[in-house]
Design goal:
Length: 225
């Protein structure tokens, strides 16, 4: 990436926005390019100031973070445009699941250490997903229980090879790339190739979308409570 990472901060609390802005501006490789107090402002600013990353609160007035995320992500061209990092108070917030489905690249708790937030911004800006794998899988499994009980496997899933299904199942269970490689006796380059094929075949933006696809297709069944 050329130049500093451009960060837009969206939160309805002024003190929170200013705190995040001060933190971002302490990093030599980042700059805060705007603040939004609600989803409507976030969408408008994202189109105007063209940030690399949007720090998105979920619960905001006028338009919540889920709808704002959906609009920002649907407007971006493939491989470019703002990526959304969701900030939430609870790691099992039902709204986070909706935000991931809307295209968010990951989430962090608002009380995460400052170094974790800066690291998360860098990861997302670099085109990766920011997922604590076990927490994300637990989150998605929890809310996938509310989906219709009969979920036929779609044609996209049916079009996967056996090995791609194996990799998708392990992603949905929260395994990292090295763990997937060890489990399936695959090289890291091969694991990455399979993940690339999965992203293309399932029309998924990132790893978070793959986890959701695995649950919503019925390929992975949430564990009973």
């Amino acid at each position: 990436m050329n130049g500093p990472i451009r960060v837009l901060i969206a939160d309805d609390l002024t003190l929170v926005r200013h705190s995040f802005r001060l933190l971002v501006e302490t990093a030599p490789d980042m700059e805060a390019v705007g603040e939004a107090g609600n989803g409507v402002e976030a969408v408008a600013l994202a189109a105007g100031v063209r940030p690399d990353v949007v720090l998105m609160d979920i619960r905001m007035p006028e338009m919540d973070g889920i709808e704002a995320t959906r609009r920002i992500c649907s407007a971006r061209a493939p491989g470019c445009g703002p990526r959304v990092l969701v900030l939430t108070t609870f790691d099992l917030d039902e709204y986070v699941y909706g935000a991931l489905r809307a295209g968010a690249s990951g989430f962090l708790l608002k009380d995460a250490p400052p170094a974790d937030l800066l690291y998360g911004i860098r990861v997302v800006a670099g085109g990766e997903s920011l997922l604590a794998p076990t927490v994300t899988s637990r989150l998605i499994s929890e809310y996938a229980r509310n989906l219709p009980p009969v979920r036929p496997v779609g044609r996209e899933i049916e079009g996967l090879t056996d090995r791609e299904r194996d990799v998708l199942l392990l992603i949905a269970r929260g395994l990292s790339n090295p763990e997937i490689g060890d489990h399936l006796n695959l090289r890291q380059t091969t694991v990455k190739t399979h993940i690339g094929h999965l992203l293309a075949k399932l029309n998924a933006r990132d790893r978070a979308q793959l986890v959701i696809a695995a649950y919503e297709s019925g390929l992975v069944v949430p564990a009973p409570s």
